[in-house]
Amino acid sequence: MEAAVRKPLVPEPVLKHRIVIVGGGAAGITVAAELKRRDGKLDVAIVEPAETHSYQPGWTLVGAGVFTRQQTAREERSLIPSGVTWIKAAVIAFDPDNNLMRLSDGRAVGYDYLVACPGLKIDWDAIAGLNETLGHNGVCSNYRADTAEYTWRLIQDFRGGTA
Prior knowledge:
Blueprint: E1 15-22, H1 26-38, E2 44-47, E3 52-54, H2 59-63, E4 73-75, H3 76-79, E5 85-87, E6 91-95, E7 100-103, E8 108-116, H4 130-133, H5 145-157
Parallel strand pairs: 1-2, 1-8, 2-5
Antiparallel strand pairs: 3-4, 6-7, 7-8
C-alpha cells in the first residue's frame, strides 16, 4: 500500500512575507512595531480583516466611565506601523508544515515566521440566555464593547447593597 501524499491546505502562495502576524489588535500591532523598530528592513505583514481597531483593554475604562466607547476605536489603517503590509482578510486555514495560510478572500500567504495574535473570541452563547440578557436587567460585561457603557450606567445608578 502506498503512503498517502499529504496535500497542503492551500495552493502555492499568492503572497509571501518573511514574518506574518495574524491579528491586528494591540498585540499584533505592538509586535510589528517592535520588529520594525529593531530592523526597519524586515518584511512584515499583518493579517487583519477589521477596518476598525477596538482597543479592548480600554473597555474596562469605558465601564469605569473614564473613556467613551468611541475613544477606544481607531481606523486600523492609521495604526499599522510604517513599512508593514496590511493584508485585509481573515485566516481560514493554516498549513504549518508548508508555512502557508489560506485567507477568507481565497488568497494564500506564505511566511518564514508566523506570529499568532488572533485575540479572544468569547462564546456568549455557551451560557444559556446570557447573550440575550447582556446589556439588560443589570447584566453587563466590559469584554463586549456594546455593554461596557452599560456597566458605567449601572455603577452610576448603584445606591448601595450587594453588587
